[in-house]
TrEMBL record:
It holds the Pfam family NnrS. This is Short-chain dehydrogenase. InterPro entries: NnrS. It comes from the Bacteria. The chain crosses the membrane at residues 12-37, 57-74, 86-104, 110-127, 139-161, 173-193, 213-230, 236-253, 265-288, 300-319, 331-349, 355-375. Keywords: Membrane, Transmembrane, Transmembrane helix.
Amino acid sequence: MRRLAEAPVFSLGFRPFFLAGAGFAAIAVAVWALWLYGRLPGAQPLGGMLAWHRHEMPFGFASAIIAGFLLTAVPNWTGRPGLKGWPLIGLVLVWLLARLAWYLPLPAPLLLALQVPFLPLLAWALGRDLVAAGKRENYPILLMVSLLAGCQALTLLGFVADDANLQRQGVLAALWLVGALMSVIGGRVIPFFIQRGLNRPATPAAPPLPGKVLLISAMLAAVSFAAGLNDVPRKWLALLFALMSGLHLLRLWRWHDRGLWRVPLLWSLYLAYAWLAVATLAMALWHLGWISQQSLATHSLAVGGIGGLILAMIARVSLGHTGRLLQPSRAIVAGFVLVLLAGACRVWLVPFSGLGLALSALLWCSAFVVFVWRYTGILLGPRL
């Protein structure tokens, strides 16, 4: 048992959570697509497959990756030792049990109760170190993780009340909150990665006001979903989403360097971040009545934006934190392309073809299977 706790995979949070999250991303979307096309008969989880899919993508997949990233980043920010060994194993087991519970013969109250602990425990583990180190500039990230737990509570309340609208509000609020977290983290690391990756001289820091406005706007957008305000088009929300899209585009313009197109670990992040601008613009257009399906904006964010940023980020972080050269294999570069194409198919092909969703799911699953294939040995093995 001691050897298990001392295994390299449990030495830092990114190792087990990146591996588990990427594997779950492939399995969960494959299950969803097979059921959707009638290829997966049998008993459905509580609330049905749609409710399960909605819940598990932000609270299963995205939350695992967020945990892996922040449990690795916070020790760097604070200088305090990160979660490892048995405490880390315990947190992974809490996450894993919540995923398995949907298909175990459990009473509904116990199943839903098992979903609750992971995000509050994560917030406590992060908050303990941030508060002890006095890192107030990182408190907004802690707040977003805590609010993500609140979104899950709202979603689970929808299960208890058998209220599909309440479930949808909680899930969409969580999705846009994850988007907000990605914009905060992306705003910190993408320009830094571009500067370091291209050996560019340090540039003056971006003015803080646009970043603060984007953060506040993103939080307001998440609150608007939690409150059910996006159920019908509203012009004032069109202005909010248009502002966010403009700020994302401003960042992309500031970050652009022609050299990044030669470096897969850079263009993958850059193009994935561009999906955040697409998603917010699509929401603005939906509120103005110019596009008919809000789900196109939702999946621009979920598949192209969050999925693309996650794959690019975990590929780079896994190499850097295991002491390897920042040179991804050709297979992983293909994975970057696959997940971006998955977003394009889900948004631009689905309205015109019933096969669009199947193709998008196949591309998504292939991208994350490639990550698991190429990175399992890296994440399980010792640092070089």
